[in-house]
Amino acid sequence: MAPSTSQETFGCDLCWNCHADPGKGLVCAHCAKLQPLDDRRDYFELLGYPRRLDLDPGDVERRYHELSRRFHPDFYQTASPRERELSVAISAALNASYQTLRDPMKRAEYLLRLEGVDMEERKKRVPPGLSDALFQAQEMLWRLRADPGDAEVLGQVREAHARFRERHAQASARLRQHAAAWGERPEQPQERERILDALADTVSEMAYLQTILRDLEQALEGGKS
C-alpha cells in the first residue's frame, strides 16, 4: 500500500461530481473532474510505470514534469474548493513519487516496502563484513575530533574514505544487477524472494555506507580548516 498523501477518503467507487464510474485516471472519464487519490495507487502507477527498478532517470523527470504541469494547483484557482483541494493532494503525491523514483536506492527501498519487506528491521542489522570497518572508521573519527591537527589520523581518514567509496560503488553495481533481475519479472516465488532478499541486503549496506561516508567527508572538510 502506498503512503497516504491526503486526508481524502480514498478509493471512491463513483465520481463525487457526476456519480458515474470515473475510470482509473486522476480525472473522471465522464465529467473530467479531479478524483480523490486511491491508496492502492503506488508511486510507480502514479507516474505510469509498472513496479520496475530499471527506470530511465530522464524519463522519470519528463513524466513528472508533464503530470505536475497538468495538475498544478495554479490551474485550479477558479475551480471548486474540492477540486482545489484535490489538485494540492495530487501535486504532493506526484512530487513524493518523483523524489522517490528518481533515486535508485530510494526506488529500491520503496519497492521492497511495497513487496512487504521490513526494511526498518533489516537496517538494524549491520551488514556482514562491515561492522569491523565501521568500528575502525568511528575510532578514527573520534581521534580526529580530539585532535584535528593529527596528520597521521587525517591520512588514515582519507584512506578509509577512499575504501568506503569503492565499496559503495560496488554496492551500486550490485543494485543495478538486482534491478535488472527484478525487471525480468520472475514468476517463481522462491526466485522473487531471493532477489528481494539480495536487494534488501544491498540497500541496507548502501545506507550504512552513505552514513559513514558523510561522516568522513565532514571530518575531512573540518580538517582542511
Structure, explained:
This protein is mostly helical and 225 residues long. It has 2 domains: 102 residues, DnaJ domain (Helix Hairpins, Orthogonal Bundle); 105 residues. Helices cover 63% and strands 0% of the residues. The protein is built from 8 helices and no strands. The longest helix is centred in the C-terminal third of the chain and has 36 residues. The radius of gyration is 23 Å and the shape is elongated. The N terminus is likely disordered.
Share of helical residues: 55-70%
Structural class: mainly alpha
Most strands sheet = none
Q: In whole angstroms, how far apart are the ends? A: 48 Å
Average pLDDT score? 90
Topology summary:
Elements: H1 43-46, H2 57-71, H3 81-101, H4 104-114, H5 119-123, H6 131-146, H7 151-183, H8 189-224
Helix pairs in contact: 2-3, 4-8, 6-7, 6-8, 7-8
Structure characteristics:
about 0% strand, about 220 residues, 2 domains, disordered N terminus, 8 helices, mainly alpha, Helix Hairpins
Task: Give a brief rundown of this model.
This protein is mostly helical and 225 residues long. The protein has helices at residues 43-46, 57-71, 81-101, 104-114, 119-123, 131-146, 151-183, 189-224.
